[in-house]
Amino acid sequence: MLPAHRRLHLGIALAILIGSPAASSAQATGLTPQDHARRANEFLKANQPAKAIPEFSALVAAQPENVDAQANLGVLLYFQARHSEAEPHLRKAVQLHPNLPKIQALLGLCEYRLANLTAARTDLLASVSKLTDAKFRKDAGLALIEIETALGNLSEAAVTVDQLRTQSPQDPQILYAAYRIHNDLAGESLLSLSLAAPQSGQMQQAIAHELERIRDLSGAIASFRKAIAADPNLPGIHFELAEALHSSDSQSDRAASEQEYALSLEKNPREVQAAVRLGDLHADRGDLDGAATLYQRALTQQPGNADASIGLARVFSERNDNEKALPLLQQVIAADPTNMLAHFRLSALYRKMHRPEDARRELAEYQKYKAIKDGLRQVYASMRIESPHHAADDTTTDAAPRKVSN
């Protein structure tokens, strides 16, 4: 299960409270509705919400159709953890004025606290996307995700968490929720696949990816081969096998990767990354013309492909055509300033061009991002799983990085 929904802060409660209630009739106590409204607002300004509750209660008794009074009373009761008392007032306010997303979201949270998940889901679905306060939207959205998960609606939970990530891409709570939801979805899909088609090529393909994830590369290679035996025409299967082979420590596996990259490109001429990888292999053995042809083919199909641009820059650099290599690397870094290999290659190129200050700057950038990547690799190593951004970082040669497909 996802982490329990946290209580909202009083600051959000006060932000939710809406304008001063209007009034028109007197009560037997001798205080008019206007008096109760005035006293309630004075208590709120004095930061004494508990004392404001009786005043709003009296106002609601006198004016049941007063939407402001119903909403304010519901909000204050909610933040006093009196959820069963708050719920009818919040619901009445929404019934009187349906276009109150803050109040409807709070109603949903109240219903969630009362374990009325179906009603809570309805109200939160209707209101979360309309909330403008980032913290309140996040708390309401995370509660909705918990509800969807509890009800088994993983696909709907994924929609909500992806919306939250768009709005707050660096928030760790949201990122963790996204991890859990998508992990659960992957597990559910794998289980369904194993029940529906346990002997299929797709099942072996999925097994291979799981084995890659836990760094059992030899097992992954065996499963990719079983997938090909079951269905040689599985989309992308030869490229995935080639990537696994090329990432192996075995020289024979790495040598076998070229045939699989070629098969991938033969079956799908628009498999850009297969062309790039073949270009890398040609460059590694000094066939610069063959490498250039493959890199240019990839860039024709996918302009701006970083791996192809870096590879072609390498070809130009080895031909001492530095002026052609330079803009290719600069374009890669402009598009992705974190591209570690591009910084390293650009540093080396600047040294060749006798631009030491530029070379030092790019080397410093390379070292910065390498340190970050090494830290991430240690985290994933501690979990005994493959880093999603795994790549060989052997910068002692001009070899292009090898990547494991996920």
Keywords:
406 residues, mainly alpha, Serine Threonine Protein Phosphatase 5, Tetratricopeptide repeat, 20 helices, disordered N terminus, disordered C terminus
Description:
It contains 20 helices and no strands. The chain has 406 residues and is mostly helical. Among the domains are: 10-169, Alpha Horseshoe (Serine Threonine Protein Phosphatase 5, Tetratricopeptide repeat), CATH 1.25.40.10; 197-267, Serine Threonine Protein Phosphatase 5, Tetratricopeptide repeat (Alpha Horseshoe), CATH 1.25.40. It starts with 9 loop residues before the first helix and ends in a 24-residue tail after the last helix.
Write the layout of secondary structure elements.
Layout: H1 10-16, H2 33-45, H3 49-62, H4 67-79, H5 83-96, H6 101-113, H7 117-127, H8 134-150, H9 154-167, H10 172-196, H11 201-213, H12 217-230, H13 237-247, H14 251-267, H15 272-284, H16 288-301, H17 306-318, H18 322-335, H19 340-352, H20 356-382
Helix pairs in contact: 1-4, 2-3, 3-4, 4-5, 4-6, 5-6, 6-7, 6-8, 7-8, 8-9, 9-10, 11-12, 12-13, 13-14, 14-15, 15-16, 15-17, 16-17, 17-18, 18-19, 19-20
